[in-house]
Design goal:
By secondary structure, this protein is α/β, with parallel strands linked by helices. The protein is built from 8 helices and 10 strands. It has one domain: Rossmann fold (3-Layer(aba) Sandwich). The protein binds 2-phosphoglycolic acid.
């Protein structure tokens, strides 16, 4: 695992965006795995800027989102369909038919989950999966206790996640209790993983994920099993890492990445 510590949220976002650029430079028809939440917003803003100002081309890209709340229609302001459209898709040129987001309103979840997994496979797998991390250590909605070989399925949200996400809803009681989410196994199948984390509320989860034991109690720790996983954190989110100097030494010795 590579750990990159950046001074602030903006630099974290730009560094993550450069990794997306590198993938698209090598493979213009890449399959990108998308994440929602407040953390990747800066990354999406930077990608939109690169698209509008530097002609970063998304016209051959396919995307798969990690998760969606169960029960929220696509036009609900807190649905992940809405989030992705508002913050990313409507600003770039990804063909509509290439955008895949789990359905939070299907009448048959098991069939939908199976179809989603199959569709990822038919598209050749995910080249780069973007990830956030929950304060309970989750990736996507793989809450503590999720099998590390889980696939796309329905998941009950943890109390911690409901508390964390209540800020986006009028009332805590409005936060959905269930989500449809890619599994940890689905995520580990991606060719490359980039996890972004910002702020002191993530410091403990980041340290557990990067330096703790691999455990289903912190599903982000499964990144340790992946051959090409990069964790990009800002200063506050890096606060509990014990091997900081080592990560910084490695990063400083790395040749600069080519620009788009
Ligand atoms: P956040 O969510 O970016 O809004 O903190 C991250 C997550 O729960 O994966």
């Amino acid at each position: 695992m590579e750990v990159i510590i950046q001074r602030d949220y903006q630099q974290m976002s730009k560094t993550a965006a450069q990794i997306v650029v590198e993938v698209l430079n090598t493979k213009p028809n890449a399959v990108l795995g998308m994440a929602t939440g407040s953390t990747p917003l800066g990354l999406y803003q930077e990608l939109v800027r690169l698209h509008t100002e530097e002609q970063l081309d998304f016209s051959r890209v396919t995307t798969f989102n990690l998760d969606e709340y169960v029960g929220l229609p696509v036009n609900h302001p807190q649905s992940y369909h809405y989030f992705m459209h508002e913050h990313f898709f409507r600003h770039v040129d990804i063909p509509r038919n290439n955008i895949n987001i789990p359905s939070g309103t299907t009448s048959n979840y098991p069939a939908f989950c199976q179809w989603y997994e199959k569709r990822i496979e038919e598209c050749g797998g995910i080249d780069l999966q973007i990830l956030g991390i929950g304060s309970d250590g989750h990736i996507a909605f793989n809450e503590p206790g999720s099998s590390l070989s889980s696939r796309t399925r329905l998941k009950t949200l943890s109390k911690q996640t409901i508390d964390d996400n209540a800020r986006f809803f009028d009332r805590r009681a409005d936060v959905p209790v269930y989500a449809i989410t890619m599994g940890v196994g689905t995520i580990l199948d991606a060719h490359k993983l980039v996890l972004v984390a910002s702020g002191s509320s993530k410091a403990k989860a980041v340290a557990q994920a990067v330096e703790g034991p691999v455990t289903s109690m912190v599903t982000a720790s499964a990144l340790q099993l992946h051959r090409d996983a990069i964790v990009i954190v800002d200063e506050a989110a890096a606060a509990s890492l014990t091997m900081r100097e080592y990560y910084e030494f490695i990063y400083a010795a790395k040749p600069a990445a080519p620009r788009a």
